[in-house]
From TrEMBL:
The name this protein goes by in its record: Uncharacterized protein
Keyword tags: Signal
Source species: Sphaerisporangium album
Species classification: Bacteria, Bacillati, Actinomycetota, Actinomycetes, Streptosporangiales
Domain of life of the source: Bacteria
Segment forming the signal sequence: 1-25
């Protein structure tokens, strides 16, 4: 039986990882690929009680393709600031008929330590599930900060925009 194979990235940063999806050729016409555009802006501040504070702004624009009726796909993106702060966003995209995109499992983690690779989670937040019809765009914004050490000036304002 002929098979059509499509590949989806599992992560915005780990391009080598992919998941193969197979569909019989006869069913291929009933399934359709959809592309979402994801724009993530990290507005970060590394507060210092000595010297100068560091402010960083990173804008990540990604296109993600999925199959209507196919499995949900998880993604991760991150940015760093000041050599000791890292903010990560984890999210999942899932397309359903008639082209509705569900964005869920959205979690934001704020790390601060001796380096940007630190495992020390100092703050976290989440964004609720939302759905987009074809042609729709939604933007959500959240602030995460160093709550663990009582340093709210060490923070990230994350803007998450998704277009279906």
């Amino acid at each position: 039986m002929n098979r059509i194979v499509r590949f989806l990235g599992l992560s915005a940063t780990a391009g080598a990882l992919s998941l193969g999806l197979c569909a019989p050729a006869a069913e291929a016409s009933a399934l359709a690929d959809r592309t979402a555009t994801v724009n993530i802006t990290f507005d970060m501040m590394d507060y210092e009680n000595f010297g100068k504070n560091e402010r960083c702004r990173h804008n990540l624009l990604r296109s993600k393709t999925g199959r209507i009726g196919g499995p949900a796909t998880n993604f991760k993106a991150w940015a760093t600031c000041g050599g000791e702060i890292r903010t990560e966003i984890h999210y999942r995209l899932r397309w359903a008929a008639p082209g509705i995109l569900t964005v869920d499992n959205i979690v934001i983690w704020f790390f601060e330590g001796d380096s940007a690779d630190t495992p020390w989670l100092k703050g976290k937040g989440s964004i609720g599930t939302f759905m987009l019809w074809m042609g729709q765009t939604a933007t959500r914004q959240i602030r995460v900060q160093n709550d663990a050490d009582g340093q709210p000036d060490d923070r990230t304002i994350l803007t998450f925009t998704v277009s279906n």
